[in-house]
Amino acid sequence: MMVTCMETWIMSDREALRKVFGARLQVSALLPVDDLEQRSRSDVQLALENATRNCGPNKVYHKGRRSFQVLAELNPGTLMDLPHFKLLIQALSSRLPEGTGGIPQCRGT
């Protein structure tokens, strides 16, 4: 139950990317969301780099500090459209003690 890389989740939340990279984010350079989890690690990372290359000095996407900055902005509700993310949330929720209410941001699983 693992996606190729966390960038798959990052790329699926276009709004989070806009928050971090601003108006110069080239959305057209991003891969389509519908088959994102089937893409290779290199395809996903290259697309993120290309989409952010005009966002300003030191703003090009690279794994590291920038990736964690985007992760902090991700909307779990948006990620629920990704089958592997949904399975992860279901697996985690099923292992939480009864009465905890599951994972609040992802209810409905």
Give a quick set of tags describing it.
6 helices, 109 residues, mainly alpha
Describe, in short, the structure shown.
With 109 residues, this protein is mainly alpha-helical. It is built from 6 helices and no strands. It has one domain (6-106).
Secondary-structure map:
Layout: H1 6-12, H2 14-21, H3 41-52, H4 65-71, H5 76-79, H6 83-95
Q: What is the overall pLDDT average? A: 86
The percentage of residues in β strands lies in under 5%
* C-alpha geometry: elongated
Instruction: Give the number of DSSP strands.
Output: 0
Broad structural category: mainly alpha
The proportion of residues forming helix, as a percent range, comes to: 40-55%
Report, as a whole number of angstroms, the end-to-end distance: 16 Å
Radius of gyration: 15 Å
The count of domains is 1
H/E element order: HHHHHH
Low-confidence stretches: none
Please describe what this structure looks like.
With 109 residues, the protein is mainly alpha-helical. It has one domain (6-106). Helices cover 47% and strands 0% of the residues. It is elongated and about 50 Å long. The chain starts with 5 loop residues before the first helix and ends in a 14-residue tail after the last helix. The mean pLDDT is 86.
